[in-house]
Specification:
EC 2.4.1.-, 14 helices, TIM Barrel, single chain, globular, GH, disordered C terminus, alpha/beta, Glucanosyltransferase, 450 residues
């Protein structure tokens, strides 16, 4: 739902990188937070040896009209983390960040609260244009999203990257799918080439009934370097009062049974009627957990569309709404299944969908990465554009051909040591520790109040 005007974009990180053949020494960053990194096994997420279910909210105070980075501001993120803890969530999704800002304090505070980040790598100025995807898929765009990867790959509570959000939003825009998939491939290759851990990368799709399954299959077909690490979609089909059958969720589970990647809801929470979040009980029940790995409720703060769980005043005061209490109650009353939730441990690739009236992709081949972006695999992205810059959609430096199968494989891997990571942490000094102490203190206070 939260989209840029004519855009979308991609993010990637590895689950099935090809074996690297080191040809030179590259420099990677080290991890700087304490949560156990989330991994992909079969069609599920795992935290160590335990199945991990996303229980989260979409978090972008200011919305699309007031572009801010909510985790570059220690005051606002501290305030909101206290509310996250009251909800009992373990994940937030952020749609836009400033890749030139320092996020050490807020990411450490999130980690101390047991909260992971799912991050969209695009901004309104640096994103794919669904109307002209070939022109917007260029080296300037990729440089900026690679810089965002650099800014967040060193945090172990970075759960995943979204390469795009609702780029394809009807049958007529499916021709943009190869560019979405190419960006995902490029991000995964960049993560592997820079020596980062295998951070899951995938796409957040619109819930378009006519091509939802085709998009999921497409993001999981082809060679290993081309496939995503997960698939997510924004789903508002359960409108209370409803049920597993009335909402059609039973059919979605049936259609996705056997799918080889983790699936989760990147947005949910229909507000047509009073929201009781009855769908929470279904989402974390074994009737769904063999296919789904949880989801993210839209959205934390009220931004003019009546989806907000809280209202944030101009002075920064948070007021919890009725939806906040309903979601808090639903989460508290719904435990995760015991064991592995019936997941598909083998995973596996899908077949690529064939061209049809609702799927206008004529070939399984992807555009080749622009040469300027390919060079960044060895030398790194450098400084990003932040929330400003000239924009990328018509910047030139586009793809000049079709990629050969396997061209996104890793050919050189960075070393695991990094002076820049140590310098970054030293420069931030004690603030992350102070933030962590504060959040832990709020945790005890919250527990005492419950």
């Amino acid at each position: 739902m939260k989209t840029f005007t004519v855009v979308a974009a991609l993010a990637a990180a590895g689950s099935v990188f090809a074996s690297p053949t080191p040809t030179e020494e590259l420099v990677a960053r080290a991890s700087s937070t304490s949560l156990t990194a989330i991994t992909v096994k079969g069609n599920a997420f795992f935290q160590g040896t335990s199945r991990f279910y996303i229980r989260g909210v979409d978090y972008q105070p200011g919305g699309s009209s007031k572009l801010v980075d909510p985790i570059a501001d220690t005051t606002s993120c501290t305030r909101d983390i206290a509310e996250f803890q009251k909800l009992g969530i373990n994940t937030v999704r952020i749609y836009t960040v400033d890749n030139t800002a320092n996020h050490d304090a807020c990411m450490s505070a999130l980690a101390a609260a047991g909260i992971y980040l799912v991050l969209d790598v695009n901004t309104p100025l640096y994103s794919l244009n669904r109307a002209s995807p070939a022109a917007s898929y260029n080296s300037v765009y990729l440089q900026n999203i690679f810089a965002t990867i650099d800014a967040f790959a060193n945090y172990t509570n970075t759960l995943a990257f979204f390469s795009g959000n609702e780029v394809i939003n009807d049958d007529t825009t499916t021709s943009a799918a190869p560019y979405v998939k190419a960006v995902t491939r490029d991000m995964r290759q960049y993560i592997g080439s820079r020596g980062y851990r295998q951070i899951p990368v995938g796409y957040s799709a619109a819930d378009v009934d006519s091509n939802r399954l085709e998009m999921a299959e497409y993001m999981n077909c082809g060679t290993d370097d081309e496939r995503s690490d997960f698939f997510a979609f924004n789903d508002y089909s359960w409108c209370d009062p409803s049920s597993f059958q009335i909402s059609g969720w039973d059919q979605k589970v049936k259609n996705f049974t056997g799918y080889g990647l983790p699936i989760f809801l990147s947005e949910y929470g229909c507000n047509t009627n009073t929201r009781k979040f009855e769908e929470v009980a279904a989402l974390y029940n074994t009737e769904m957990t063999s296919v789904y790995s949880g989801g993210l409720v839209y959205e934390y703060s009220e931004e003019g569309s009546n989806y907000g769980l809280v209202t944030i005043s101009s002075s920064g005061t948070v007021t919890e709404g009725a939806d906040f209490t309903s979601l808090q109650t639903a989460f508290k009353g719904t435990a995760n299944p015991t064991g592995d939730g019936g997941y598909n441990s083998t995973g596996g690739a899908s077949g690529c969908p064939v061209q049809s009236a609702n799927w206008n992709v004529t070939s399984d081949a992807l555009p080749a990465i622009p040469s300027g972006a390919a060079a960044l695999m060895k030398k790194g992205a450098g400084v990003g554009a932040g929330l400003t810059g000239a924009g990328s959609q018509n910047a030139g430096g586009t793809s000049t051909g079709t990629a050969t199968a396997g061209s996104g494989s890793i050919t050189a891997t960075a070393t695991s040591t990094s002076k820049s990571a140590a310098t970054s942490l030293q420069s931030f000094d004690k603030t992350p520790l102070m933030m962590t102490a504060f959040v832990l203190g709020m945790s005890f206070l919250g527990a005492a109040l419950l």
